[in-house]
Amino acid sequence: MVRAAVMPAPGEPIRVMEFEEPLMDEGSILLRTIYAEVCGTDVHLWHGRLEGVPYPIIPGHVNVGEVERVKGVVTDVNGKEIKQGEVVTFFDVHETCQNCWFCLVAKAATRCPQRRVYGITYSANEGLLGGWSEKIYLKPGVKVIKLPAGISPEELIGGGCGLPTSFHAVERASIKMGDTVVVQGSGPVGLSACFFAQLRGAYRVILIGAPELRLKAGLDRGVDVSINIEKVGIEERIERVKELTEGRGADVVIEASGNSQAVMEGLRMVRDYGTYVVVGQYTDTGDITINPHGDINRRHLNLLGCWGFEFTHLYRAIKLMERFHHRYRWHEFISRKYPLDQANRALKDVEELKVIKAVLKPAK
Fold first, then answer.
1. Is 163-305 a domain of CATH 3.40.50.720?
2. What confidence tens digit (pLDDT) does each residue in 25-44 have?
3. Does the domain spanning 2-146+329-360 belong to CATH 3.40.50.720?
């Protein structure tokens, strides 16, 4: 039997339950879970803020594990065979159809109506399809990535879903060498966005958020300026950004806060003909009022949304982690490791910002 932490329904406590080991289909993989992420998405799931979730679910959409079994021959994107004993991660999005308009014409698989996501849109009744479990069943066709030499499981899970999500946001922002970049939100997405902005050639990176623990993590890794929202008011924050940019505002602002009210603030921080990227609004946190003329059109702004990430972002983000993990030390973001039976505590700690990164360690 396999133990897994199950989210029965929104608002209900997580329960550890036992499941049968899965029957292996040709081309499938069974992982022994080393670490599973507990992130803001899991908090949203717990509060029922996402649509189309087939509760009960086994959460955990970004994970790292050791290959326990492979049925048949399975290869990675480089054509290398996945073998028993190797440490891997996987792209949590599965079953995109590669047949619809979004997949084939728009090349935007994140909008495919058939896409399923491990730990989010698979029910626990369908099997071990989430990371909060001692084992994870990877269906045939799931895209697997071997951890590069020198990248520990802790490093990978320390980056978590924030790694490819922020990579996608920075890519969307088209940051140019010499740009000043503001990042709103100092959680895992915001922190990694700062790092990728630096690697993209930003002249100055300004991190806005709280608590101080998270801001310090950014400053320790090369962020130029931090602004603590618990100590500095909105108008003063905007004025500080203007002071640092000759009164114009930042070239690029990336919203990674998850707070809808941050959007209007961020729009006031970006310069005319600048770029504003919204990546943090994964759930509906409320409406804001925007004047299309004064706030966007007259200012000739580039206003972009950024939904999730695709395999290319995960793969390339891991390649950069391989190259720069000594500089950015994502593993140090792990504030605490929790056993399965403390999943409720992990969720509360993430919700209350007591940790930078919480991870479950399912194995006893």
1. yes
2. 999 999 999 999 999 999 99
3. no
